[in-house]
Structures are given as C-alpha cells and as structure tokens.
Design goal:
By secondary structure, the protein is α/β, with parallel strands linked by helices. It has two domains: 172 residues, Rossmann fold (3-Layer(aba) Sandwich), CATH 3.40.50; 92 residues, Pantoate--beta-alanine Ligase, Chain: A,domain 2 (2-Layer Sandwich), CATH 3.30.1300. Helices cover 37% and strands 22% of the residues. The strands form three sheets. It has a six-stranded parallel β-sheet with strand order 1-6-3-2-7-8, sandwiched between helices. The protein has a three-stranded antiparallel β-sheet with strand order 9-10-11, covered by helices on one side. The radius of gyration is 20 Å and the shape is globular.
Length: 297
C-alpha cells in the first residue's frame, strides 16, 4: 500500500465522501481495488481483500447492508456482525470499508432502471439462477463500480456465473473496471467456503464434501480423454445422488457458459445441490481433450 493511502477512520457511509477520496488517490497515481460483499465475512472474502491489498494501493471493501428486491429476486439474508466484519477487513488489508445505508444507496427505493442479462448468460443451462437474480447482481455491482470509480473488482471463482457475467458487462457497457477472478477457498475436506454452509445440518455438512469429489472425478475423466458432455454430466449426477437434490451438473465453455460438444478447450464444471434450507454451488476448471467442430452451442 502506498504511503498516504490510508484514512484515520476506515469506515465511510456516504458516496459523497468515498468517491472524492478515491479520485484523489487515483490522481496521485494510486490504483484502487474493490471487494463487494453482503457481510458475514469469512476466509473466502478475506482472501479477496488480501489479493487486492497485495496488488493495489487502496482497497475498498463494500459492505452491502440492505435488501434489494427485483421482482422475484432478493438478496439472501444472513446473520451478520458488521463490527466484526470491519475489524476483519481492516486486518486483512482493507483501506476503506464502505457501508452505506440502503436508503441512501437506493434513495428512490428499489431500482427501476436495471441491467438485463441475456438468457445465454442468465439461463445457460436448465435450473441455473434466474435471469432476475443474475441481473440484480449485475445491477448492484455496476452501482458499486459507479460509486467507487475506475478500479479492479475482485471476485471469487466460486460464483463463476457471476464472474463471466461481470466480465461481459465490463466489455459491453464500457464499465471502467477490471474483473479479477480469484481461486475458491476451501475447508480441509474440500467444501468451498460460503455463508450458506452455516445453514447445513450436521448430516448435510457431512455429505457436502462429495460435491468437490464429484467435480474432481469428472475433471479426471476429461483429463483421461472423455469428451462426451452427457457422460460427464451423468458421472457427476451419480456421484452427487446421495448428497441432496441435484439442481444442475454441467460442463460448459468457461468463457461463455455455453455447452460444448465434444468437450474441448477451456471448460468449467459447475454443480448445484439443494439441501433442506439452502443450496451449495461449486465448480472447477478443466481443459477438454477434444477438438470441437461445433464450438460453443
């Protein structure tokens, strides 16, 4: 972090304070990194803060404290301790923690002007997150970038659909941000860290490691030469059958989220498993063995 990049009080609550501060840093040649969360920080979030703190002069942690409904879409609600979040973020290297009240962030109520994500990204496979939810995430992150200004936005690879969507948003709308995807952080048994894990029962948590094992088994099959997406998806579903209800288990082009037949190039294996009160999503990267004649479908 550059000398002079810090602030006496790391917590700001008004965009009218944040943007001028960051503009002064940029005018002095400093780079700004942004990490957006809805609170309940864990090691996955903190790894993003550390990544930004190691690469940028100023790191902003955005603590989104409100709930924004967009038709049927609404941000999930978790138990949060914002004082603890602030302490952890600053300890991990955040220069500024931005915690705007919802009534000032969206002063006119739920936004009526929103980003609409095409079905090819919002619904690239059956049972994917709804286009409303994906559009809501894009709208909120566009809002965050507009408030912060030109920056690097650090995102966890755990939410790969969001990473792909935000990368496309930056290009399509000339948004002044670079999307930096960071590896998922995992528990020792392979379960990816996430706020939803706390909602699992003891039995569900015991079954959750099978998600990563199913992904690894599918990746190993592809590395061994399997190029049929149907067989890969069937393999994952069979491995996941004893965990919960499999919402999806797909192999897609990593850049576009579109099906590839035969499997070739940079791929992403993505799964979602529904448990009693929540669902867990995970994914891994793999390179397909084939030479696709059709390309992304």
């Amino acid at each position: 972090m550059s000398e002079g990049a810090g602030a006496a009080d790391p917590v700001l609550t008004a965009a009218s304070e944040l943007r001028p501060l960051l503009d002064r840093h940029r005018a002095a040649g400093r780079r700004v990194g942004l990490v957006g969360t809805s609170g309940g920080l864990h090691e996955g979030h903190l790894s993003l803060v550390r990544r930004s703190a190691g690469a940028d002069d100023v790191t902003v942690l955005w603590l989104f404290t409100g709930r924004v409904a967009m038709e049927t879409g609404v941000l999930p609600s978790y138990e949060r301790d914002y004082d603890r979040d602030v302490a952890q973020a600053v300890g991990a290297g955040a220069t500024v923690v931005f915690r705007p009240p919802n009534e000032t962030l969206f002063a006119l109520g739920d936004p009526l002007v929103r980003i609409q994500v095409a079905d090819s990204l919002a619904r690239p496979w059956p049972a994917a997150d709804s286009d409303v939810f994906v559009g809501m995430v894009a709208t909120i992150m566009a809002k965050a970038i507009n408030v912060v200004g030109p920056c690097r936005l650090y995102c966890g690879e755990k939410d790969w659909q969001n990473v792909v969507t935000l990368r496309r948003m930056v290009v399509d709308l000339s948004v002044p941000a670079e999307i930096v995807a960071c590896p998922s952080v995992r528990e020792p048994d392979g379960v990816v860290l996430g706020s939803r894990n706390a909602k699992l029962s003891v039995e569900e948590r015991r079954a959750a490691p099978e998600i990563k094992r199913a992904l690894d088994a599918a990746a190993a099959a592809i590395a061994g030469g399997e190029a049929d997406p149907d067989r890969i998806e069937d393999l994952m579903r069979r491995r996941l059958g004893g965990t919960g209800r499999v919402e999806y288990a797909v192999a897609v082009d990593a850049r576009t989220l579109q099906p590839v037949r035969p499997l070739a190039g940079d791929l992403r294996l993505l799964v979602s498993v529904a448990f009693a009160t929540t669902n867990l999503m995970d994914n891994v990267a793999v390179t397909g063995p084939g030479s696709s004649e059709e390309g992304p479908a």
